[in-house]
Amino acid sequence: MRFSLPPVTRALLLTNVVVFLLQLLINPLLIRWFALWPPGTIFEPWQLLSYAFLHDPANYLHIVVNMFALYMFGTPMERFWGPRRFTLFYFLCVLSAGLTQITVAALAHADSPTIGASGAIFGLFWPLPCIFRASG
């Protein structure tokens, strides 16, 4: 069997890895502009999507686990749904996780940023039983 990744999953994996390598070079600047900051700090609207491409450069396991989960669960989802529907669902997961995070941060009066694809990855878990049942 030939090993191949669907195009959107491959693009997401590569983008996350490239951004992580950039973080190793210019971390404070990327965190300042692209991490998800709570409202009232340095929040900008694009951060509701950009935070999902940043990972903790001091903890390699953060990106490794997130990207492994994206590979394991994103691949069958994209093959089942197709690239367009998978892309839409993935970014809806990123957005809903971000909105949830800033709501909780505002209620807790937090002032630290959020980074990582974990919210999107957890969002991918929701339809998995239906997908595996239908494709198996």
Q: How would you explain this protein's 3D organization?
A:
With 136 residues, the protein is mostly helical. It has one domain. 70% of the residues lie in helices and 0% in strands. The protein has six helices and no strands. Helix 3 packs across helix 4 and helix 3 packs parallel to helix 5. The chain starts with 6 loop residues before the first helix and ends with a helix. The mean pLDDT is 91.
Show the helix and strand layout.
Blueprint: H1 7-34, H2 47-50, H3 60-81, H4 83-107, H5 118-125, H6 128-135
Keywords, separated by commas or semicolons:
136 residues; mainly alpha; 6 helices; 70% helix; 0% strand
Précis, in short:
With 136 residues, this protein is an all-alpha fold. The chain has helices at residues 7-34, 47-50, 60-81, 83-107, 118-125, 128-135.
Percent in strands: under 5%
Low-confidence stretches: none
Bulk shape? globular
What's the structural domain tally? 1
- Report the oligomer: single chain
Q: What class, by secondary structure content?
A: mainly alpha
Order of helices and strands: HHHHHH
Share of helical residues: 55-70%
What composes the largest sheet?
none
Number of strands: 0
Number of helices: 6
What value does the average pLDDT take?
91
How far the N terminus sits from the C terminus, by CA atoms, comes to 18 Å
Indicate the radius of gyration in whole angstroms: 15 Å
